Amino acid sequence: MSTKNEIKQSQVIKRVLVELKTYRLQIVLSLICAVLTVIFTLLVPVLTGKAVDCMIGSGQIQWDGLYQILEKMALAIVGTCFFQWLMNRINNYITYDITKNMRQKAFEKMLVMPIKNIDSHSHGDYMSRIATDADVFSDGLLMGFTQLFTGVLTILGTIFFMVRVSLPIALVVIALTPVSLLVAKFVASRTYAMFQLQAKHRGEQTAYADEMIENQSVVSAFSYNEKAKEEFDVLNDRLADSSFKATFYSSITNPTTRFVNSLIYSGVGVAGAILAIFGGITVGGLTSFLGYASQYAKPFNEISGVVTELQNAIACAARIFEIIDAPAVEESRENHLSDVEGKIVFEDVAFSYDPSKPLIEHLNLTVEPGQRIAIVGPTGSGKTTLINLLMRFYDTTHGKITIDGVDIRSISRANLREKFGMVLQETWLKEGTIRENLLFANPDATEEEMVQAARTSHAHEFIKRLPNGYDTYIKGDDGSLSQGEKQLLCIARLMLALPPMLILDEATSSIDTRTEMKIQEAFQTMMEGRTTFVVAHRLSTIREADVILYMQDGKVLEQGNHQELLEKNGYYAKLYRSQFVCGK
Ligand SMILES: Nc1ncnc2c1ncn2[C@@H]1O[C@H](COP(=O)(O)OP(=O)(O)OP(=O)(O)O)[C@@H](O)[C@H]1O
């Protein structure tokens, strides 16, 4: 999702029109309001002209006619205000609703996007698209609706009225129109590219700030603050530069068209005066005409302003559509797992994140129901990757993985994942109360079951010490709980759901030794009869495993239980002696 496959402006406009289809009725209503607003607005100069003609000279005023005209004028002004207000309300509804829906669609797509897309893209940039770009899009669209409709209609209406008053002068005005349009188009074409660049740089900057803030403690620990500041400065300069250029191009549009329009206005004045001298037009007629000439110029200014705003909006919409239109993961529902025994087989599995760097190749493994598998190996050896394949965060590129004989690609991911309980090194808690977090895994659990699960995982003690116990409100990453406490909550959550298979990735790494021993007991009970994969670094877990997989460079180099592998005196034995025996 890089700039390489940026969508063309015309494609984005088409795409926006597709989104707008749902609002057909509102758009028609808005157009009717725009037409009425314009008609009422354009009536005012006609009435002004007529009023002038009622005042022929000093003491020669036709009061009756003048009063009637003033009444009509008041009506026209009230009509303009009312229909403009109604149009603005409808336009507000359309734009904020469409933006809300686009945000929703983008967010929903993020939830079903292949994890590889999320992993390989900056998270801050995604955030910038959904938050800032959506706002810019809605602002531009609102301006487009409000000013473009009325602008175009005012131009057409003005031409109509001008032709009625005096054809020759109207022709002068119309003949000069393309100059104004050409100037606006010339400047606008340069503005889109600049706004696109600005949105891209904004995304990069948000991504960087997000990364630094999220890892603030690590940044400080490595004294990276100065370097971070410098790098941020570079991004900031780049954004300021593209913003300046975008604003510069957009800002010259209006003055340029204004200049051209002033020329038109003077042309009308001179031509009208000459015509009036020769009796071709009344003074009131010329007054109306000059009124139209200035009204005629105004929408051109507005439209040129709107065009640049719209281009900015389209540039931002393109970035949101890139998310909305990105392919979702393909789901198969050919099979469904209900009661699971837990036999897992890897058949000649191959996988790599990057096709040019092979990782897992020819992996064969059979896990009997209820067995405990410990995966060990040096860092980067592929332990987490194995879990990623098992949970279908990534799909195998060759071979297959089956559960009770069913290929995991033939069932939905949701069905697969509900059969596994995971406790990872990285904890994930959602914003809400402790109770909501625990019941998240099993909303039907009773209060007793919840407390029991918390007791078994030894989370109950610390929850009770919190100011509001189970009703204490926590924020996902607010740091009010220690890493160990967060892990205890995750374990309690898992204990409440008790799925048929488990994945533990160094689940107890942040918990003190005493608590860990207690948790191990709870884990033992939980693992009883459940096929369990443990990415293990602890001797106790490894020693009690039914099968130990020793992995290196994506390959399973040794398989067997602790005793067998020690007797083999290979990689595992070496690891055991270096890490555990010496460490003891
Ligand atoms: N999302 C990813 N995209 C590209 N490469 C990745 C990705 N995740 C992991 N890798 C690479 O794949 C290899 C195996 O990584 P994996 O995370 O499976 O190792 P691991 O054994 O779990 O390591 P550790 O013990 O450090 O957690 C590593 O070389 C790693 O750099």
TrEMBL record:
Annotated ABC transporter domain residues: 344-578
Statement: the UniProt record of this protein carries the keyword ATP-binding: yes
Pfam family name, one: ABC_tran
Record SUPFAM superfamilies: ABC transporter transmembrane region, P-loop containing nucleoside triphosphate hydrolases
Protein topology in the membrane: Multi-pass membrane protein
One Gene Ontology molecular-function label: ATP binding
Location in or out of the cell: Cell membrane
Transmembrane segments: 27-48, 69-87, 141-162, 169-188, 263-290
Record-linked InterPro entries: AAA+_ATPase (IPR003593), ABC1_TM_dom (IPR011527), ABC1_TM_sf (IPR036640), ABC_transporter-like_ATP-bd (IPR003439), ABC_transporter-like_CS (IPR017871), P-loop_NTPase (IPR027417), Type_1_exporter (IPR039421)
Keyword Transferase: no
Entry-linked Gene3D superfamilies: ABC transporter type 1, transmembrane domain, P-loop containing nucleotide triphosphate hydrolases
Keywords of this entry: ATP-binding, Membrane, Nucleotide-binding, Transmembrane, Transmembrane helix
Occurrences of domain ABC transmembrane type-1 (ranges): 28-312
Protein's UniProt name: ABC transporter ATP-binding protein
Species name: Roseburia lenta
Classification lineage: Bacteria, Bacillati, Bacillota, Clostridia, Lachnospirales
